[in-house]
Amino acid sequence: xxxxxxxxxxxxxxxxxxxxxxxxxxxxxxxxxxxxxxxxxxxxxxxxxxxxxxxxxxxxxxxxxxxxxxxxxxxxxxxxxxxxxxxxxxxxxxxxxxxxxxxxxxxxxxxxxxxxxxxxxxxxxxxxxxxxxxxxxxxxxxxxxxxxxxxxxxxxxxxxxxxxxxxxxxxxxxxxxxxxxxxxxxxxxxxxxxxxxxxxxxxxxxxxxxxxxxxxxxxxxxxxxxxxxxxxxxxxxxxxxxxxxxxxxxxxxxxxxxxxxxxxxxxxxxxxxxxxxxxxxxxxxxxxxxxxxxxxxxxxxxxxxxxxxxxxxxxxxxxxxxxxxxxxxxxxxxxxxxxxxxxxxxxxxxxxxxxxxxxxxxxxxxxxxxxxxxxxxxxxxxxxxxxxxxxxxxxxxxxxxxxxxxxxxxxxxxxxxxxxxxxxxxxxxxxxxxxxxxxxxxxxxxxx
Amino acid sequence: xxxxxxxxxxxxxxxxxxxxxxxxxxxxxxxxxxxxxxxxxxxxxxxxxxxxxxxxxxxxxxxxxxxxxxxxxxxxxxxxxxxxxxxxxxxxxxxxxxxxxxxxxxxxxxxxxxxxxxxxxxxxxxxxxxxxxxxxxxxxxxxxxxxxxxxxxxxxxxxxxxxxxxxxxxxxxxxxxxxxxxxxxxxxxxxxxxxxxxxxxxxxxxxxxxxxxxxxxxxxxxxxxxxxxxxxxxxxxxxxxxxxxxxxxxxxxxxxxxxxxxxxxxxxxxxxxxxxxxxxxxxxxxxxxxxxxxxxxxxxxxxxxxxxxxxxxxxxxxxxxxxxxxxxxxxxxxxxxxxxxxxxxxxxxxxxxxxxxxxxxxxxxxxxxxxxxxxxxxxxxxxxxxxxxxxxxxxxxxxxxxxxxxxxxxxxxxxxxxxxxxxxxxxxxxxxxxxxxxxxxxxxxxxx
Lengths: 448, 448
Description:
homodimer; alpha/beta; Rossmann fold; Four Helix Bundle (Hemerythrin (Met), subunit A); two-stranded antiparallel sheet; zymogen (chains A, B); seven-stranded mixed beta sheet; EC 3.4.16.2 (chains A, B)
C-alpha cells in the first residue's frame, strides 16, 4: 500500500515562547461573567482587535470580558524571535492545531488564575481564517468554549469540497453588479495589457499610467503585474463595505462602485483608453488618500497581515484550490494544478502541502455531530464560496448577509450598515446568550 | 488468524516511517460493510490482535472488516528504527495526538483506496490506553469514526479528576474478597520484609525463598523488591479472569483466589512463615507453568508491552497520579508527589510532564457534548478507578461488568464467562448496529 501523508504535530520541544493576548474587562461581570475570545488569525492581534468593533459593542450587554489572542508566528508571538521564519525546521511548529492548542491552554490558564473566571463560559469569535479557527476550536475543544461565531470562514475551501472556480465567480459578480460593463472591461483588460506590453514604448506607457515605483521591463514583470491587478480586484470585492473604511487599504464607501466608474466603457474602447481606466480604478484602491507618490506592486494589502506565514500554512495544511475560466469570471483562464503548487512550495520552503489533511482533521462536510457554531457569510464576499451557507443542524447554523463583504458583521456598527447585518449581529448575540444560559445551567467541572 | 499484514507510510518531518496494521476481511460485506478498527495501544499490535477475540467473534454477524492499527513507537512501527528511543529529540513525536492523527489518516486512506470501503462506517475499539484512544478518537474525529468502544479506559485517571488512592483501593478489595486475611497478610508483608532484610542472612533467605535470579544485596534492592511485589499484586488484580488465560503471564482461572490460598495466615504467623507464603503466591504469577528456573525482578509482564514508551508518555502527557495510605489499601503509604515524579522524568528523558494538558486536550469531565461512546468497566479492574462509571448522556454510556477484570469484554468468549460480560458484549453489539444504521441513513460525504 502506498499512502498519503500523516500530520506531525509537535510542541515546541523543550522551549517556550511568549504568546501575546489583549484583555479588556471593563464590562466583565465577575464572578462567572462570559469571556468573548477573539481567535487570532494570520496577523498582528492589535489590528484584529481594532477591526472587531462588534465585540467591543456587545461587551457591556453581555457583561463579558474580551480576550484577543494572537496566533503563534504572527505579530509579536514569534516562537523563535527573528529566526521563526528562517527555515522549515523553525516553521515546523506553525500549524492550525498548534494554534488551537495555544488558545486552549491560554483559556484554561485564565480560568485557573483570574479570580472569578473559573466558571466563565467562553465564546470563540473570529473572521476569515480566524473564523475557521473559532469553528474548529469549538469542534476540537468543546470543553473550553461553549460556542463559536465563525464569520466569513471558508472551512470548505479545501480540495474536493467546493468548485475551485466559485471564489472568482463571486468577485466577478460584485463588479458586474457595481457598474455598467465593469466586469466585461476587466475581462478585456488582460488582452489589452498583453497587446500594449508587447512593445518597449508600451511597457513604459503602462508603467507611467499606473505610476509604478518600479517600471515594468520583462515578460515576468507583466505576469506579476497582471497577478497584482487580479489580487487588487479580489481585495476590493473582499472590502466592498457600505461606508468609508480602512481594512486592507483606506477606501471610500462601496469602493467597487467607485472603481467601476472608471470602467464603464462600451465595446469601441481602445486598449490604451481601457488601460487608462484600469489605472484610474487601481489608484482608487492604492491611493485613495492621495498620499502615494507611486504604486508598489509588492504591497497589495496592510502589512498587519503575515503574508509569508500564511503562504507557509497554505503550503502545508491550508491547501485552498482556486481556478478561473475567463467565462464565468473576468480573469485569464487558469486551472488548479496541485503539482505546480506543490513544487512552488517545495522551492520556497522545502515543504510539500498535505492536500487531504485539513479535511481529515477538521471533518470537511461531515461536521453534523458538533454543536453551537454560527457560520455567518457575506453575499459580496468571495470567501462565501468556501463557507457554510445552510443550517447543518439546529445548532450549526448559517447566517446570510446579502449586502455584506468580508465579515462585515464583526466590524463596528455604522449608520450605513444594511438591515441584513444589523439583523445578523442581533441574532448572533441571541445565540451567545442562549449558549451562556446553557453553560450556566450546567457549569463545567473545575479542573484545578 | 487470517489477516493481511500491511504497512502505512507516514511522513515524519521530512522523513517517513512505516506504520503496521493488520486487516481481516473474510466476513466483510462490501460495498459499505462496517470496519471495526482496533486502536492500538502501547505494544505490539499482533499481541492485541490475539487478545481481542471479541472483534473476531462479531465480525461475521456485522459483516465487518477488522483492522488492527499499531501505535507509533511500538511493536514494529518505529519512526526512527532502532534510534526511536535514543533521546528526547527522537521521542518528541510520541504523543497520543499523533497516534490519533495516524489512525485518522489510515482510515481515510483505506476508504479512498479499498474498493467498497468509501462509505463504510468505522467503529473504534480499544482497551486500556487503547480504549482511551478509541474514546478520544471519536471525540476528535467524529467524521472518521461513527462510534467507539472504550473498554477499561481510565480517561479520568489524570490530575484533579479522581482520588489518587482509588486505584490501589480496588486492588486491595480484590484480594480482600478472594481469600481469608489475604489483604491483611499482604499489608503485613512489607514490614516483615523490612525486618527479615535487616540482616545479611535474612537477605539471603529472602533471595532464596523467592528464587530471585539476582540475589538481594542492598537497601535499594529491597525497595525495588517491594515495588516489584506491589506491581505483581496490581497485575494479578488486572488479569483476575474467570478462566485460565495468558495475558500478562500464563495464569490459572481466578488467579487472585489461587494466590490467596498461600496467604490465609492468622495473626500469629511469623515473618518468615508469612514471607514464605508470599513467595509461593508470587510464584503463581511468575511460574505457573513451572518453566522459570528463577524469578527476574525486571520482568513483571509480557514483553509485548512497550514499557519504556509508556514511561515516556507518562512523563509527558499521560500523567496519572497514584497514591497509597496503607489503611484503605494494603500497601506502604506513599503520597502522590508531582515534583518528585517530574524530576525522575527529567533525569530519565530530559523532559518534564505537562500535568494539565490531558485534561485540556481531551476534556476531562466536560465531555457531554460528544456522542456514541461506550465506556465498559470491570468491577475487579483497578483501572475502574479512572473510568467513566455512569451514563453521561444517552449516547455516552457506561457498562459495568462486576465480575470482570481488565477489559474482559474484549476477550474471546469462554464457558466460564460470568453473565455480566455476556450481557455487556451483547449490548455493545446492539450499539454498534445502531451506530451503523445511523451512519447508513446519513452516509458520510466522500472526501476523495
